[in-house]
Inverse folding.
């Protein structure tokens, strides 16, 4: 059985347990700590969490990857429980900033309203990135807008992607970049001034490097010790959504995005107007190929406009809208998982039936071969003709008690192999039925309870991918 399928219930239940802790559906202990891990996609968040927790976070490309949502991982640390929250980055090519902010708002809002506090934040910044990388600037801007703290002593900034080998000149460039990141208000300067601490994280991105693990744990130890000194502040985003009941577009972080959405919307609108003008000109006397080109551009612009309209709608949503939306998504994902598991049950049962049919055919063939000599003997005793007698004397036919013929041996080994495969297929089918029944009986409810406040749908998309991929793998073969 594919291990991903085998552990689907376990993984879902485990994920639900960690999400429940984050959103306060299960009451955390006073010593528990929740840390948000932030940074652009590819900055090393999942790898960092994996090094701290020792768990497979399946990096951006794994089956269980949760790049479009948050995912929570936990670990024990000197008798207490530490939760590390893997988040999607802003300015990602695959998703709009408003989607990223809604996911963060949904989880962080639910968490705050149920009494859970974010104990600290870790921002990862790849030192390899160009100094003025727009993506990093956007992520920094969004952190400041989401936090709005007077003090940033619960924030650690860690530069990642330091080269393992470098020339003197490369080192000088990177050192200069690091100094600018920590000194300039355009980057982390003002947050460092308000207490944030900057680290170098010595990672390679490859497993099995003790240095990388100790580097990650050193940074985490700093965050834990800071969180023990004073209660961390509530994020501005949480206050705005819950205490002030603002819509997402009215929050400080939301206004940064709203400004962009409206600016883009206006720009697209005017581009579209100009384009329509040119299309009209081409209809009367222009080339037809140019007209087709312009129509394609128009379709792309309209698509863009549609997304921007959706973003504008999302900006109007309140915490309860976000929660309801996410809860509906979670339910839908559960239905999809159930459907995929049912499909797997059918596949396994069909496999089993095919093999039982083949076994049945081979057994029939074998019985026929075994019956042949008897039939001949029976034919002999009832007066065989001279020709048969002669041929039997030249090549004596095998009897059931004699050494089996090559064909019979072949059938026998085929039969044994098939019996083995049938046993495996039977086991696989019954395992799959058991997994399906467990999902329906317990996991589904538990996972939905873990999301009862309206979160977690996105985090399950990876599980669906794993279940679907399971259809391609078959332990019988
Ligand atoms: N050289 C180097 N590579 C890293 C480091 N951290 C992560 N990586 C690699 O960078 C890629 C992106 O990392 P990932 O953890 O998926 O980034 P995320 O998108 O922020 O979660 C992966 O291929 C990692 O193996 C690091 O500190 N140094
Ligand atoms: Mg990741």
């Amino acid at each position: 059985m594919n291990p991903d399928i085998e552990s689907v219930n376990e993984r879902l239940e485990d994920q639900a347990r960690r999400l429940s802790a984050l959103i306060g559906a299960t009451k955390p202990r006073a010593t528990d700590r929740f840390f948000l891990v932030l940074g652009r996609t590819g900055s090393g968040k999942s790898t960092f969490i994996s090094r701290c927790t020792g768990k497979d976070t399946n990096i951006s490309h794994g089956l269980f990857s949760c790049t479009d949502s948050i995912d929570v991982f936990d670990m024990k640390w000197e008798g207490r429980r530490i939760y590390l929250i893997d988040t999607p980055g802003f300015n990602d090519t695959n998703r709009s900033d408003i989607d990223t902010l809604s996911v963060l708002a949904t989880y962080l809002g639910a968490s705050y309203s149920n009494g859970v506090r974010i104990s600290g934040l870790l921002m990862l910044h790849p030192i390899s990135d160009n100094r003025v990388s727009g993506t990093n600037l956007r992520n920094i801007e969004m952190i400041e807008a989401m936090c709005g703290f007077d003090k940033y002593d619960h924030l650690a900034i860690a530069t990642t992607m330091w080269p393992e080998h470098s020339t003197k000149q490369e080192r000088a460039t990177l050192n200069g970049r690091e100094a600018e990141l920590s000194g300039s208000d355009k980057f982390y300067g003002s947050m460092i001034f308000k207490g944030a601490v900057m680290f170098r994280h010595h990672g390679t991105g490859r497993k099995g490097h003790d240095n990388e693990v100790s580097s990650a744990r050193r940074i985490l130890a700093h965050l834990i010790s800071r969180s023990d000194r004073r209660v961390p502040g509530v994020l501005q985003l949480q206050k705005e959504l819950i205490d002030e009941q603002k819509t997402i577009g009215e929050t400080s972080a939301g206004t940064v995005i709203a400004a962009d959405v409206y600016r883009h919307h206006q720009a697209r609108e005017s581009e579209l107007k100009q384009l329509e003008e040119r299309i009209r000109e081409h209809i009367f006397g222009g080339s037809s190929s140019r007209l087709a080109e312009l129509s394609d551009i128009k379709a792309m612009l309209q698509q863009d406009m549609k997304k921007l309209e959706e973003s504008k709608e999302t900006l109007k949503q309140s915490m309860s809208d976000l929660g309801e939306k996410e809860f509906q998504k979670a339910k839908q994902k559960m239905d999809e998982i159930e459907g995929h598991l049912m499909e797997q049950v059918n596949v396994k049962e069909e496999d089993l039936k095919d093999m039982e049919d083949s076994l049945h055919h081979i057994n029939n063939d074998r019985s026929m071969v075994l019956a042949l000599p008897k039939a001949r003997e029976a034919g002999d005793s009832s007066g065989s003709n001279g020709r048969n007698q002669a041929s039997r004397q030249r090549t004596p036919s095998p009897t059931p008690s004699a050494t089996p013929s090559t064909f019979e041996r072949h059938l026998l080994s085929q039969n044994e192999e098939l019996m083995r495969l049938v046993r495996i297929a039977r086991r696989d089918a019954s395992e799959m039925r058991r997994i399906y029944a467990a999902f329906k009986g317990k996991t589904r409810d538990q996972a939905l309870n873990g999301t009862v406040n309206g979160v977690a749908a996105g985090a399950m998309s990876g599980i669906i991918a794993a279940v679907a991929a399971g259809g391609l793998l078959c332990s019988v073969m």
